[in-house]
Write a structure and sequence with these properties.
Layout: E1 9-10, E2 17-18, E3 22-24, H1 29-42, E4 46-48, E5 64-66, E6 74-78, E7 83-87, H2 92-101, E8 104-105, H3 117-122, E9 139-145, E10 151-155, H4 160-166, E11 175-182, E12 184-185, E13 188-197, H5 198-203, H6 205-211, E14 214-219, E15 225-234, H7 243-267, H8 272-279, E16 286-290, H9 292-296, E17 304-312, H10 316-329, E18 338-343, E19 358-366, H11 372-384, E20 388-389, H12 399-405, H13 409-419, H14 428-434
Parallel strand pairs: 3-5, 4-5
Antiparallel strand pairs: 1-2, 6-7, 7-11, 8-12, 9-10, 9-11, 13-15, 13-16, 14-15, 14-18, 17-19, 17-20, 18-19
Helix pairs in contact: 10-11, 12-14
Length: 436
């Protein structure tokens, strides 16, 4: 086993830190199971971390911290079943690249791919889709080490009650060691990015949703401007962005220049509305065609904190208009755009889209900028519409709220009680959102 030292752990955004009793890097599932057994003997809790892209303390622990750096790679590629089984610590970017080389792809994915497969699925990472759901909804089987150190495999046919919960398990049911995803032959997507006014997008939201396989948009606070993105399958040929244009849009504009704008806004908040009016018009329309992960994902180098709520899709436009009115009537100064995406209903107990057609509204603030007043005010709007917060993003909800928000909440906690009665995988965040 590599490494058994203690050091301070920080998440990507830098807003969560933890100092575990020890951090370990097991090189096999057997080693990981032994780590869990020894922690139990010593009365220590256990948490596995990924790349730290959650903004909550879901993975923080003062017990044993498991780093998955050596639990990576493809276990099996089954072309007959059209599945791929991967070790839990495999980064999504590596999985995407391997699948592409094999002529395969996931059906849908989020907009970044730095996370590990276990970290991304356990917190409910999603992209946008009319018919295709989150990454966790593409899981066909998974393997986890439970609190007594035993190895459990679950699927729709084997330990089905665990499978219904563990695809988005929050790290509460065990340590995920491998995941099997459904895949399909690689395909092309044509992305059409286009500026559009806030009024036009919101008035036509249902039509834009219905007409596109993947629709999302960003609204720039302090303006009436949005940027829309429509991704649809294409017969080709591939026509990726030119190297220069791609660098200008994805690196210079969306990262380099945006970093400068955010830094200016943090230093001089009064400049934000004027700068927003200019910067919201800086991105021009473009259309390109490429393989899925190159269309769905993009680099995110500007660090921020985020809160995202899942609403019934029919409530999204009204809620977004309330957020716009909030910003306009308040002294808030918001330099980050607000992101809106969708997902179909799924059958995972604690999925934010569990049992209902969903739209997501995500708000962000540049790292180091006071965010509490903005997030608190937005959260009040979201909860009034029956919102469910993303498990890996900032929120203040607790188990009592979730018991009302999720019809299958008790189903999840019953599985947790059975698999981890002594709360080997608990931490303060899980106690807040799931109860003791």
């Amino acid at each position: 086993m590599s490494g058994a030292n203690s050091s301070t752990w920080r998440n990507w955004a830098g807003n969560v830190t933890a100092r575990p009793a020890r951090a370990v890097t097991p090189a096999s599932t057997a080693e990981l199971a032994d780590v869990v057994r020894r922690a139990a003997e010593q009365g220590l809790t256990v948490k596995a971390v990924g790349t730290g892209h959650s903004f909550t303390a879901a993975a923080a622990t003062d017990g044993v911290l498991i780093r998955p750096d050596l639990l990576t790679g493809i276990r099996e590629l089954d072309r007959a079943a059209m599945t791929v089984t991967v070790e839990a610590g495999t980064p999504l970017k590596r999985l995407n690249a391997v699948l592409a080389r094999e002529g395969l792809s996931l059906t849908n994915m989020g907009d970044i791919m730095e996370q590990t497969v276990a970290g991304a699925t356990s917190t409910g990472t999603h992209g946008t889709g009319r018919d295709s759901a989150s990454i966790a909804a593409q899981i066909t089987a998974l393997e986890l080490v439970t609190a007594d150190g035993s190895l459990m495999t679950c699927s729709a046919k084997e330990n089905a009650d665990v499978f219904a919960a563990a695809r988005i398990g929050l790290g509460a049911l065990g340590v995920v060691t491998a995941i099997t995803f459904a895949v399909e032959p690689i395909f092309l997507l044509t992305a059409r990015e286009e500026p559009m006014t806030f009024d036009r997008v919101t008035a036509g939201f249902e039509e834009l949703f219905a007409e596109n396989e993947h629709f999302e948009f960003y609204w720039f606070p302090h303006t009436g401007n949005c940027n829309t993105k429509r991704n649809n399958r294409s017969a080709g040929p591939a026509a990726p962005p030119g190297r220069v244009r791609g660098w200008i849009d994805d690196e210079f504009m969306s990262n380099g220049l945006f970093q400068v704008v955010c830094s200016l806004g943090r230093a001089a908040p009064a400049t934000i509305p004027a700068v927003a009016k200019v910067s919201s018009r800086a991105l021009s329309a473009r259309t390109y065609t490429d393989i899925p992960y190159k269309v769905f994902t993009s680099p995110r180098r500007v660090r921020f904190v985020e809160m995202e709520y899942a609403l019934p899709r029919e409530a999204a436009v009204g809620a977004l208009r309330e957020v716009k009115a909030l910003v306009e009537r308040s002294p808030l100064r918001v330099s980050f755009p607000v992101e809106v995406r969708t997902a179909p209903a799924d059958d995972i107990a604690l999925s934010t889209a569990s049992g209902r057609e969903t739209a997501y509204i995500a708000v962000h603030m540049y790292r180091g900028t006071p965010h509490q007043a903005y997030f608190t005010a937005v959260e009040r709007i979201m909860t009034a519409h029956g919102g469910r917060p993303h498990w890996g993003k900032l929120h203040t909800r607790d188990a009592a709220y979730f018991a009302e928000a999720y019809p299958r909440f008790a189903e999840f906690t019953a599985v947790r009680d059975r698999l981890d009665p002594e709360r080997r995988f608990a931490n303060p965040y899980l106690r807040r959102v799931l109860g003791d």
